[in-house]
Write a structure and sequence with these properties.
Blueprint (H helix, E strand, L loop, with lengths): L1 H31 L19 H10 L7 E8 L6 H17 L11 E2 L5 E8 L6 H11 L8 E5 L1 H35 L6 H25 L5 H30 L5 H28 L7 H32 L21 H11 L1 H16 L20 H12 L8 E6 L3 H9 L4 E10 L2 E8 L6 H15 L7 E3 L1 H35 L3 H25 L12 H29 L4 H28 L7 H33 L31
Antiparallel strand pairs: 1-3, 1-4, 2-3, 5-7, 5-8, 6-7
Helix pairs in contact: 1-6, 1-9, 4-5, 5-6, 5-7, 5-18, 6-7, 6-9, 7-8, 7-9, 7-18, 8-9, 8-15, 8-17, 10-18, 10-19, 11-16, 11-19, 15-16, 15-17, 16-17, 16-19, 17-18, 17-19, 18-19
């Protein structure tokens, strides 16, 4: 009876898993396409709610016409503007005011440069015209007809926001296509099969679609902030982590097919072997990402649940749908290298067996050499360029940046973008007087007034985002705080970036210790020791420093980037520690199995490296390759993040995990399991036995 019922139960499990995911795709697929509609790339979406610049944006957003899109139209001709140029510029300024709703509804006075080659018109377009990405292209179309040889560019904060939004809008399609191609090529190279690579690729694609659908539901039900940045990072994370999980499962499934006659039995054994490690791996990543909920920045706080949802979806698909498809397809999916029942794997000397033997003979020398190399790479951080300006955030220069550069040359004596201030209307005159008396301020004048608040537009003498303008913002905040009853707040593009920097600094101090504590706790529970987890966490910190050092050697000298995005250290830390420690889990979990089976400490280390080295190398290479996809995108912040994480994963996979952790484990011996019972020596170990088929995995 049992023999008859078991195939039926197996078939029910396979078809049940397939049915569940078909229903999930039908339900979540249509929602996935709606995610872009709820993605928020506005600068305020990144700001903490407590920031002064957030208050300014909120107050202005509630005024008639809503928040403004501030643009500057820049006319320039080498050798000097002609009378026809000036007439055309004046006519176009009138056309802009006639077609678009502007604050005050008046044609602005053109600002000529001293050399007569540049003329600038500032406009404040109200929210009635639409968001920056909607109105700025229309303005550019309106200005497209102008005299030959006359350069007409639209710059200012609104134009920069529109250009940034356009880039984010093009990311999803490019990112998905390039990621699919990269993963497909890697899977084909790994499996050398015309069929097998398609199965995990289809599964990870389903996981990505399910993630987008669930994130859309999450946004609509909880109101979390999803930016183009977090959406792109999550896509890469799903593909990278999902493919890693698939590699680990298929590697163990191939091994079990040689021991079991039925694919279902082989898959059951494979799942029992890898599931604890996969759960711990995904749990570590999710726990690390959950720590971002303590961040002050909106985009960081939103990234935690968004990316965490992606990891959960990847794990769910790879432990249910992937096994069902593999069982349904049977052994033939591995053609031409089909693992036959009762066969032995091709005998060959593993490169990781040789590495393990080498490290075991010279553990101290290997550990010292590896530590020196990591230290040398980390020393590169002294070459880290300064903070990245918003205008330098594109890998290709858009019109808004070119316009800003032209304004800086034409008007070196004044800033080219406004500092926005709001104050209570009854004290607005006092606030204006205080602003004008502030060092670094060229002009201050009142704008709109509504709901008891008045908008004050301030022009600084220094360039946007320069140290001088930063100092002016600080002085304005200090001076206006002394105006009793004004409740003034200072905002605008530069103030927003300053508030982001302040929040980022605070988040690093809060989130980094939380991530370390969460990861360490999971490792302690999984490995039942303290020494081993402390070793893994310490080496991941070293990997993070080393990868930042490598990045510093490339960002400015090779890539030509003008600075480093402020969010890079925190984001790269979260991903490198949470993701990188996975490979430590796979290695040390196998070491623990060998130790429990009675193997001497040194042999347990060598066997664990031999068995897991190949699949960890494949998984690490895939994860690094998927994150490197971010480097093809036109935003410096994503290129930097993709580069640092990819480099860090490769350092971790091929240096730290293979040599340093192995060498340290050989030196520590059974003390690696302190204070667990395995640390007590031969008396505390389990009776000697052969490793069970359900051991963690084989490479």
């Amino acid at each position: 009876m049992d023999a008859v019922e078991r195939p039926k139960r197996s078939r029910r499990w396979v078809w049940g898993a397939l049915a569940v995911w078909v229903l999930a795709v039908l339900a979540l697929g249509p929602l996935a396409g709606k995610l872009e509609g709820v993605t928020d790339n506005d600068a305020v979406a990144y700001l903490p709610q407590s920031a002064q610049s957030t208050k300014v944006a909120d107050v202005l957003g509630d005024m008639p016409g809503g928040d403004t899109t501030d643009v500057v139209v820049v006319y320039h001709r080498d050798g000097g503007l002609t009378d026809a140029d000036r007439a055309a510029a004046d006519a176009q300024a009138r056309a802009v005011v006639a077609k678009f709703a502007t604050v005050g509804g008046q044609v602005p006075q053109g600002m000529p440069s001293v050399d007569g080659a540049t003329l600038a018109y500032p406009f404040q377009l109200t929210e009635k015209n639409g968001l920056p990405n909607e109105v700025v292209p229309d303005v550019r179309d309106l200005l497209d007809d102008h005299p030959a040889g006359l350069s007409v560019l639209v710059g200012g904060p609104g134009a920069t926001a529109a250009d940034m939004d356009e880039v984010f809008g093009s990311i999803d399609g490019t990112l998905m296509l390039v990621t699919l191609l990269v993963v497909a090529v890697l899977l084909i190279a790994t499996y050398r099969s015309p069929f097998l690579w398609l199965v995990p690729l289809v599964c990870v694609g389903i996981a990505a679609a399910a993630t987008q659908g669930l994130v859309y539901v999450l946004v609509k039900t909880t109101g979390i902030t999803v930016t183009g940045q977090s959406s792109g990072i999550t896509t890469v994370l799903v593909f990278g982590a999902g493919t890693d999980y698939a590699l680990l499962l298929i590697a163990r499934y191939r091994e079990e097919l040689r021991r079991a006659a039925r694919p279902m039995d082989a898959m059951s054994s494979a799942l029992r072997g890898v599931l604890p490690a996969l759960l711990a791996s995904a749990g570590t990543v999710v726990a690390g990402l959950a720590c971002l909920l303590a961040a002050d920045l909106n985009n960081m706080r939103g990234l935690g649940p968004v990316a965490g949802t992606g990891v959960v979806c990847a794990l769910a698909v790879m432990t249910t749908l992937l096994p069902a498809l593999l069982v349904l397809l049977g052994r033939r999916v591995f053609w031409p290298l089909i693992p036959a029942y009762g066969s032995a794997p091709r005998a060959r000397t593993s490169v990781y067996a040789r590495i393990g033997g080498f490290v075991a003979r010279r553990p101290a020398a290997v550990l010292a050499a590896g530590a020196v190399l990591l230290g040398a790479l980390a020393f590169g951080t002294v070459n880290m360029p300064g903070e990245l300006r918003l205008a330098d955030g594109f890998t290709k220069t858009p019109d808004s940046v070119t316009a800003g550069e032209q304004l800086g040359k034409a008007f070196p004596e004044r800033g080219s973008q406004p500092i926005q201030v709001v104050a209570r209307t009854e004290h607005a005159a006092e606030a204006v007087a205080a602003a004008k008396a502030t060092e670094g301020v060229v002009d201050a004048r009142t704008g709109r007034a509504a709901n008891g608040w008045t908008e004050i537009t301030i022009t600084a003498k220094d360039k946007p985002e320069s140290a001088g303008e930063h100092a002016t913002v600080h002085r304005l905040r200090d001076r206006l705080a002394d105006v009793a009853g004004a409740r003034a707040a200072v905002g605008g593009a530069t103030a927003q970036r300053m508030d982001q920097d302040t929040a980022t600094s605070r988040d690093e101090k809060v989130v980094v210790p939380l991530v370390l504590a969460a990861v360490l706790l999971i490792l302690v529970l999984l490995l039942r020791s303290l020494a081993g987890p402390l070793l893994l966490v310490a080496v991941m910190g070293a990997v993070w420093f080393a990868s930042l050092g490598v990045g510093a050697l490339f960002f400015e000298p090779v890539f030509g980037f003008a600075g480093v995005d402020p969010s890079l250290p925190l984001l790269s830390f979260v991903f490198l520690v949470a993701l990188g420690v996975d490979y430590g889990i796979f290695l040390m979990h196998r070491m623990r199995e060998e130790a429990l089976a009675g193997a001497p400490a040194e042999r347990a280390v060598v066997v664990a490296l031999t068995k897991t080295g190949g699949v960890i190398a494949s998984a690490g290479f895939v994860l690094a390759a998927t994150f490197s996809v971010l480097t093809v995108l036109p935003l410096v912040m994503l290129v930097e993040l993709g580069f640092v994480v990819a480099v860090g994963v490769l350092i971790d996979t091929f240096l730290v995990r293979t040599f340093l952790v192995t060498g340290a484990s050989v030196l520590l011996g059974r003390r690696i399991w302190w204070p667990g019972r395995l640390a007590s020596g031969p008396d505390a170990r389990a009776p000697e036995r052969e490793p069970e088929p359900s051991s963690m995995m084989a490479g």
